[in-house]
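Give me structure tokens for this 385-residue protein.
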Amino acid sequence: MRRFVAWALLSTLVSTHALAADKGGKGKGKKKGKQSSGQSMDTTSGDPTAKEQSDAGPFTPQGKTGSLAKEEEEKKDDAKIEEIVKSRPRDTHLIFGDLLFGFGRAPKPGAATVVNHPDQTKKAAPVVAFVLGGSWDLSKAVTLGLRVPWSTASVRSETPNSPNENAMAFGSPDINFEYRVELSRVTTLPIYVGVGVPVAQGNPDPSSTRDYNQTNMAQVNLLADAATGWRNPEFYQPKREPISFGVGVRHDRGGWELHASTKLTAGINFASKLEAPDIMGGGGTRYRQNGVSLRDVTVVGATFEFVEKPSMWLGLDGWLAYNPILPIDFVSNATKKTAFQVVLEPRLGARFGHFVPSVSGVLPVGGQLGDTGMAGVRARLDYVW
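Here you go.
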């Protein structure tokens, strides 16, 4: 009996200890095995309320305020600008033909008050100025361009009762580089450098009587220069090496494109001396050939796209041409002509795929070109890709 009781007590103690050990082992294993994945109020992921969001009440602030609101607004503006830039990519290649018909006369060195001295060419009917060229983007910021001018007109020599003669003349081809500094996604600062090939035809000496063909070709270039509103002096100055420097700003956003620039062109003389500088009879009245001529052209303009597909736009350019030093001066006691000239050019254009045609009018306002009645009609076609 005693042995039975002892065995019973021993068996009870062993089984109780085993159950306790087994229960404790499972608890320890669970704590160790589930610690990394169990939820905890100390962590956001373990907080059962972390995924809950309260509904906006009537007094909830609308949008962000202070610096956060300003930052949010700037992000929206940047997104809009990016969308505009994507929708108006830059054409990296361009070939163009520019044809201008000019009607009127061109100023010549001289003063209207001097007896028997014609200070302007005979009326052209008409002068045709053609420019063929193109440009190629060498990189995102650098563009190389080439323009080749050619002109023709019916001119008359200064000999009384002389008939009209058809003449044609090449201008000086222009090789140019443009470097663009990006001020923003829609605003750039172009810097321009151009160097001419000095092959413009004609003898610019107004006192020469040696070769009428050379004199007529010089008049053609003189007329073409006037018909284009004195905008590109680098083309039309015979016997001079043209070098141009310019800087501007362009802003293109939405349907608007705004631009402004100024270009200074220097013409370095390499012609021989004037044949008869005192042909007017002396007395202080004479021609003077300058070693370097200067002309500055400052342009301000804008275009507005009023139809998106197909793209159609209206534009207006206005420029001020300033001639501080002419290639050949006329020295006299007469009142000097103004060195300033204002010109307006309204334009209408469109885009059909790769083709961009446009028409415009060149309208001098006052100045020497206004006095001679010069005006022009321009037609241009660009092929871009």
